[in-house]
Amino acid sequence: MRHGDADLRTEGQVTPMEPNARPGVPSVVAVVVAYNRQELLLEALAALRAQTAPLTAVVVVDNHSDDDSAQVASDFWPEVELVRLTRNTGGAGGFATGMAVAIARHEPDWIWVMDDDTVPTETALEELLEAVDRPDVVLAGSRVVWTDGSDHPMNTPRANPFARKEDVRAAAERGVTPVRSLSFVSMLVSARRVKEAGLPIADYFIWNDDFEFSTRMLRRGQGVFVPSSVVVHKTKARANTDVDPGARFFFEVRNKIWLMVFSHGLNPFEKAVYMGSTLLRWVRTFRASRQRRFLLTQLRRGLVAGFGSRPRLNADVLCDLGPVTEAVVKVEAPARRAA
């Protein structure tokens, strides 16, 4: 089937990519979630093509863009596995569907996820794979820099404050740092662990989805920050997470409540520590904002939604995406049985 065929625009349609794995080398599928940034998407794909470590496949999830991102991607790299969604499922839904397709179709050892404005350096994947060459490591993240080469404050991981001293020393000897959470901006995650613990929660839509997902993955297994693996996050500004979020503050509040109440990623003590940190960040956000009344409205909405509802199952949130829905259900079946 050709990329130009009309029926490729049906719900959840996937186009194939020929495998590119080498014997004895861990299989890795890259998942890129794209939305209306075709020029940056091309940069990301060019960088994936130039990786020194082989990729089994590249899955691009087009989150219902209206700038022809999907067509541009397929024209640039026809072998890319393209998932065209008929509605915007947010970053959370995009990564959930992308990981599901990657596992259901390729059964890789690892999944490397990133946004379409993430441009990896040539050895980024190779460095990540060296860092996870241990049975206890299930998650690894790159050093994320902005366009000027400085560390991006939005994606700078913090060392795990709860890590044992011996684990910190052992990690330092390998040039890595133990972490308790990671960003979806260049995250390498064990496919086996995803099948055990489940996909990202699509109902989060945006914000805190990677925090919830990574902490849940790390309830069994270790995660590391790999400074030798570098990617460039080409955001418009070098902004921190406490910059005025506008209407998105609703998702920050609602999803953080969902995370603290319903997620099994953090233990009770960790939830208390992270919620305290969150409240301090919210105070800084309000102080710096010029639209405090509007943020207060979003805070109220978020609190009502957070305490008045709970995240729906991925199978329900993504129920109308045809083959993609089937992939999601298939991949999450083991985790559902174990719950």
Automatic annotation (TrEMBL):
GO molecular function: glycosyltransferase activity
InterPro entries, sorted: Glyco_trans_2-like, Nucleotide-diphossugar_trans
Keywords: Glycosyltransferase, Transferase
Pathway where this protein functions: Cell wall biogenesis; cell wall polysaccharide biosynthesis
Residues in Glycosyltransferase 2-like domain copies: 31-165
Record Pfam families: Glycos_transf_2
Superkingdom, taxonomy of origin: Bacteria
Region (Disordered): 1-21
Keyword Glycosyltransferase assigned: yes
Compositional bias ranges of the Basic and acidic residues kind: 1-10
Similarity annotation: Belongs to the glycosyltransferase 2 family.
This protein's name: GT2 family glycosyltransferase
